[in-house]
Amino acid sequence: MKTKIYGGILLLIATLIWGTSLVAQSLGTNHVGPFTFNAARFLIGAIVLLPFILFTSYHKSRQQTSAACHKAKDHKLYQGGIICGCIVFVTASLQQIGIAYTTVGKAGFITALYIVIVPILGLILGKHVPLQIWLCILLAIIGMYLLCMNEKFNLGVGDTFVLFCAISTAIHIPTVDYYSPRVDCVRLSCLQFFVCGALSAIAALVIERPGMQSIIEAGAPILYTGILSCGIAYTLQALGQKEVSPVATSLILSLESVFSVLSGWIILGESLKFKEALGCVLMFIAIVLSQIPTPRSIMSVKVSGQIDTEKGRGSLV
């Protein structure tokens, strides 16, 4: 249970960073195109992680694993980094393009629909989703609608891009869930950033042909989102998902819009209407309820603890 709480806190910090970085992301695209912006910030995110990787590699014991085990882990790392990097490239590109053609409120609501798509993917993969979680998802969707939607809902071109972004996000969460327990999470994040940054750079050179002056003008937003949103937040997501299920992860990450609205209210002095405040409360309630253990999960922990005790470890998993 303690590790699950620890993982949830890491995901919450990542969500807080993403929620407060939306303003910087919007400012950056005033100077450069979406592919150029993504290329710069994801490559910076990868570079930020390199010192940590070199430091941990230097102090890592060579006696823990065999050469064959290292080779297997490296294969999983490269495989996961390339796959996750491609998914992040698609997700970030669709989001940046979609925001240009729709309102922030609609984009936030449609993107949050991945909290429905993730458990549906889980069902397709044969995973059980408790009724309690479905009720939390419904409550979160209502809260997100109250928080984000201030206009009549109709699906336009930009909304379609954002909808595909939500689908891509939903695919990224279980993918990270698969690889994060099997490889080093910091290395995984670094590699996926390099892949995403390289693909974005190729697209930028072909489509946007950016100039150095425009990149310099967008320097502050690029550095902010590159270091915090990419380098730190995505790494925290990978670390947190080691302990938290994909469905619970999607619910926690959906708080991004809540933190975005609250930061605008606290830092920028923007007004917070009753409808938006109620939406924030409903989403927080949904997150808390999703973390309360069900009788079935409590029984599974007890059984797991009994098995471990019989094996001589004497601790709960």
Unreliable segments of 5+ consecutive residues: 297-317
Structural class, from helix and strand content? mainly alpha
Indicate the percent of residues in helices: over 70%
| Shape assignment | globular
Number of helices: 15
Distance between the termini: 8 Å
Percentage of residues in strands: under 5%
Radius of gyration: 20 Å
* Mean pLDDT rating: 78
Helix-strand pattern: HHHHHHHHHHHHHHH
Largest sheet: none
Work out the number of β strands: 0
Give a nutshell description of this structure.
By secondary structure, the chain is mostly helical.
Features:
globular, 0% strand, 79% helix, mainly alpha, 317 residues
How would you explain this protein's 3D organization?
By secondary structure, the protein is mostly helical. It has 15 helices and no strands. The protein has helices at residues 2-20, 22-28, 34-59, 67-99, 104-111, 114-124, 131-148, 157-179, 185-208, 212-217, 219-240, 246-253, 256-266, 274-290, 295-310. Helix 6 (114-124) crosses helix 8 (157-179) and helix 9 packs antiparallel against helix 11. It starts with a helix and ends in a 7-residue tail after the last helix. The relative contact order is 0.20. Mean pLDDT is 78; it is low at 297-317.
